[in-house]
Amino acid sequence: MSVDNSSRGPAQGRVRWRRFAIAAVPAVAVAGVLIGLTAEGAIASSFSVSGAEYTVTASQLSGSGFVQFGTALPQGNKQVPVIESGIASARLTNLCQSVSVPLFGTIRLTAGDAGTPASASNLIVDAQSQTGSQAVFKNITIGQDASTLNEDGATTGQAGSFGEQASGITIDNLVQNTWLTTAGTFTLPNLSLGFGSSCP
Q1: Domain boundaries, the chain
Q2: Which end is more exposed in the chain, N or C (fewer Cβ atoms within 10 Å of the end residue's Cβ)?
Q3: pLDDT tens-digit map of 173-197
Q4: Which CA distances in Å does 142 have to 66, 115, 173, 176, 194?
């Protein structure tokens, strides 16, 4: 995702560096923590996630080309177990993402809440937990070797490990506690980004 200061300064042309840092650091945190975009939809072996989990909610997630399996992400000198979900094409209605940033409070991002859902291609989510009021899978296969998953065309798990896939998925009232999200493209209609409360 690309989330694409004039003030009454003491003198024209000067920058209030303290105010600039307060504004810039959260934006960098959102770009790096909330949505990590990669060109190939894959995580480099040298990639290490931050120590900050964040919350993702949506009144509905729907998509085509779904795969899911267990894996682990590097975090410093340890591995964090996650549920990795890949969706070739996804739509999220009433998307909300929130993360707590020390010294700054809670950064909250919302989109897709004005009649046009947020959308993503080659979406990969590594979550600690995931809930929904109802989940519907189309043409699902459960218990497939994770290394042979091919519905999303982008990600697979370790050979011999448990996996599942479906040609389509719909989850109502989605709540995810997430470590990492990557996507080829992420389109966010009616984007709102700022400080606020956590996602419900």
Answers
A1: 17-195
A2: C
A3: 999 999 999 999 999 999 999 998 9
A4: 12, 34, 23, 21, 40
